[in-house]
Amino acid sequence: MGKVVLKLGKDISTDDIYPGRFMATVLPTETPQYCFFDRTEFNQKLKSKGIEPGGIIVADENFGCGSSREQAASTIRGHGLIVVARGIARIFMQNAINLGLNLVVCPTLEAQEGDELVFESGEVINKTSGRKFATEPLPPARQEIIDAGGLIPYTRRKLLESPPR
Amino acid sequence: MGMTVVEKILANASGAKSVKASDVVEPRVDLAMSHENAALVINQLNEIFQGTNREPKPWDPGRIAIIFDHRVPAEGPKTASNQKLIRGFVARHGITRFHDIRGDRGGICHQILPEWGYVLPGQVIVGTDSHTTSHGALGAFSFGVGATEMASIWTLGVALNIEVPPTIKAAVNGKFSRHVGPKDLILHLIGRLTAKGANFRVLEFHGETIRNMSTSGRLVICNMSVEAGATSGIVPADSETERYLREEAGVTDFGERVSPDADAVYESVVEIDVSGLGPQIACPHTVDNVKPVEAIAGTPIQQVVIGSCTNGRLDDLEAAAAILRGHKVASGTRMLVFPASGRIYAQALERGYVAEFVRAGAVVMNPGCGPCLGVHQGALGDEEVALATTNRNFKGRMGNPKSEVYLCSPAVAAASAVTGVITDPRGGN
Predict the structure, then answer these.
(1) Which residues sit opposite B341 in a β-bridge?
(2) Which residue on chain B is closest to A143 by alpha carbon?
(3) Which fold has domain B5-272?
(4) CATH T-level fold of B280-419
(5) How many CB atoms lie within 10 A of CB B118?
(6) The domain A2-161: what is its CATH number?
(7) Among A52, B69, B73, B227, whose CB has the most other CB atoms within 10 angstroms?
(8) What is the pLDDT of residues B123-182, one digit of tens each?
């Protein structure tokens, strides 16, 4: 369960999530300060801890389109936020799963800022409106990575299974 | 069941007899490319090796390419320190396909890779840059990944858990009119497919227009395939691919031409006739907001940008220089030109294009990503409008969320630089 803390439209680009001018900052420990930097009010709220971890960003189709910059995933993950979108662009989805960012694809979702959402198997329930929306499973190929807790532990396991070079 | 080009490449790279869309494979990687974000890849590589009692090192330094292009020369101490850290890593591991900030070897990664013969037909190429789709122009399966995925590839030499993407076939026929070309074609296609129309899919290009198109033009359409969401764009290799590799990249062993089977399974087919196509413009703030130039001709612009991995090659500079000849950049408009590589810069010098730009009042900048992604040079002021041959016009892309970016071909950009307003290069304005 969580509260919608930001509602966004379609085609939200990685330039919106993490503007290019901060790309020299790469470490996941340092990227959260620039999260949605040009949405000044939201960024300020994040930095002043006015938004609790577990808060939900709701977006329309093609969330995270554009650049492959992983900062776009690490900056959201750093605040412990969850992304629920009607659709997600490929590279952002891979990056999110690789870093263990919580992601839900919900093609018909309707929710407003402040709404309470509950995640059940196969659906999102909007407690505020009382409506239920079916979710779409993440690509099955990626489930092993999710189960391992991200691509770093998953690759480490594969590495240890391989003979030393 | 027949296979598409990417299915054949993935089957070969993962040791399978055949694969089909949605199969999960682990292809070996022929080339792993990064730019300044290699700093994060190195960090993630160290994370992977933590606690394993093994020394963090890439699986095969000969298959790694690192090219500095996003912020060259460094705009500040953070970038400079990242570049320094990467240089140390490159030296320690003997990475030879390294292109530092140099006038002779430097340039944008997506230009350096084909130009130096690092990409061959039939290969699997990954890059920590979304425009890695470019290299499909040479018949390779080439896609963008994030830094952690790259660290995983550096560790194991394979891309883990790859779902074979379905393929959309684009059949392109007809002859371009004067001042219309590959950029107009791909903008038109993105407008039709929308920004998500090819998400998780491959765009495979066919038809007489593609067969007659130079590799430079094919790089434009594959480069921007990602703007329709595509995992990769791909042009099956042919005699033009081999000509490019031989004459422009100095390659003598071409690898293998991979063609789709006659009964290959496509998710859908898009047909385009370019003979009636005019210059296209992507309007703010999404790349799929595409209109014919007539619809917005007359819009005042404060900055024109010609360059980038999309349109910074010699034929692009030639087209722009030809239009500028005998004219000046309009007062009140700035024109920035940044060639895609040092080699192109040198060729443009020899052919007199650089002199033409400077005479007309343009500023010719060093090769690199330049103003395209708003991190370095050529930022826009509040409420300013730019017209660029680059590939993205997202809000804030050129460094300022209060500005606007329109995308176009080099011909439209040059004609508009002369008038100071968006202009149809075919005349009549």
Answers:
(1) B107
(2) B161
(3) Aconitase; domain 3 (3.30.499)
(4) Aconitase; domain 3 (3.30.499)
(5) 23
(6) 3.20.19.10
(7) B227
(8) 999 999 999 999 999 999 999 999 999 999 999 999 999 999 999 999 999 999 999 999
